[in-house]
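User: I'm putting together notes for a lab meeting next week and I want to include a structural view of one of the chains we've been expressing. I don't have a solved structure, so I'd like a prediction I can at least talk through. The sequence is below, exactly as it appears in our construct file.
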Amino acid sequence: MSEERELLRSTVAALVEKHAPPAAVREAMESERGYDESLWKVLCEQVGAAALVVPEEVGGAGGELADAAVVLEELGKGLVPTPLLGTTLAELALLSADEPDAEALDELAAGTKIGTVAFDRDEHSGRDYVVSGDVADIVIAADGQRLNRLTQFTAHSAKTMDPTRRLARIESQDGTDIGADPGLADTAAILLAAEQIGAAARCLDLTVAYTKDRVQFGRPIGSFQALKHRMADLYVVVQSARAVVNDAIAEPSPTSAALARFSASEAFSKVVAEAVQMHGGIAITWEHDIQLYFKRAHGSAQLLGPPREYLRRLESELL
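Assistant: Thanks for the context. Below is the predicted structure for the 319-residue chain, given as structure tokens.
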């Protein structure tokens, strides 16, 4: 990782530690917009989080996909609710348009407007489940072939398993074709995988810390060899998946995106399952944060399509 990117990571990590501790995350997820607007402003103004993938000539930071992935991974560690994923995807969609909307890109990069992308539209009902859909100002529909900017739409908040990620159902009344879809679903899969890796790593860290403090039979349970082996295995799982995701970020393709998404989903699900076991009954109480990681793991695994769909794509390329 470059020195600049490592600085970006440490800056975001410091902001999350200061402005988004567990209590603040719970407050944000229960707020009207589903995220901390003051933290979003800080991320946009001090870090330029929403401007990373936008070229400098249209008000952005001129960064790369890897920069956005770094920020999403750090936010994922703390389950921090923000509209960054949807906004970044909307920016990439507008940048791929036949005639990019410079004004909209500038507003998205500044964080004054929220964007999102709806995938796999249901043409019969016109309804989509999209991240940050209920707070988005700019919505792009991507069907794998074309991009359609919705000019008139109605958004309805959807109740989901994961309270830290707001989803909405969108009803489209009108839209305008703006160009060919550059494969936004694959980009979304890679960025989501980066976020999942961050959350999986933090979930494992919390579990290791708990086993050092929890005493049973006169000893910290983390000193028992069986648990040591299980946590060592989880560390390998997370680091192996991280390597796959990093490869996909460095060389995006339909195949690398599918592999990253499947690996990250499986790793996060495995870590959180073990975390619940090792924490015992406290893990499923509302007061404990592990239940939020559990919900995020299962919610994220289904977002943009379940792991089995990505596995089928990989199988089709081998057979």
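A couple of points you could mention at the meeting. Residues 123-127 have pLDDT under 50 and may be disordered. Residues 152 and 174 are 5 Å apart (CA to CA).

User: Perfect, that's what I needed.
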